[in-house]
Amino acid sequence: MTQSRIQNHRRRTCLAVAILSSCVLASCSTRQVSRTLEGSTAQRLVTYSLDQFIGELAEQPEISVMKGKTVHLGVYFVKDHPLMDYATRLITARLNLVHGIKVAAPADTSEFELDVFFNSMGTDSDDFGLSVPTFGLVPTSDSINILALDMYHGITEGYAIVKSTDDGVIQQTERVLARIRRDNVSTPIIDFPLNQLE
């Protein structure tokens, strides 16, 4: 072989390896934020995480000191959320069940003001693994999973601020993060769950 043929062969081989590597690496991981209540699994993920969040929030020392007292309750998120009424009712019920805390009507007097602030309340998904793009050859999919981990999460995060109406003392709870997971392993032949919602 001549020197120029050897160099052309090397260039073509390097180009083929570079194209193949970039195709494989380009589809290794994606993150997708889902609409909050799209389907039963998403609803269960977000409501289970909300329930876990409220349970952990109720155990914070700033909340437990209000045992047997009355509070005015405010629940806030950055925008209108379809679960705000549900969250408010669940917080009201959990406070009463766990600590005997009564939520007062707005016109009534209370011993404390309790404001719960949500940073996050929703679902997201993440795919991580090895997949190969279909280059439009398969009309129903952009890629084929060789081996991938599909992660579906319900996430609720937030904190509470407690104000005493007697002396005006304000306290903030720790930030609470509740995450409920449902993960699947995907291959070209079969998908199987790593964990299930109970």
TrEMBL record:
Q: Which residues form the signal peptide?
A: 1-26
Report keywords, A-Z: Signal
Give the protein name, as stated in the record: Uncharacterized protein
Organism of provenance: Granulosicoccus antarcticus IMCC3135
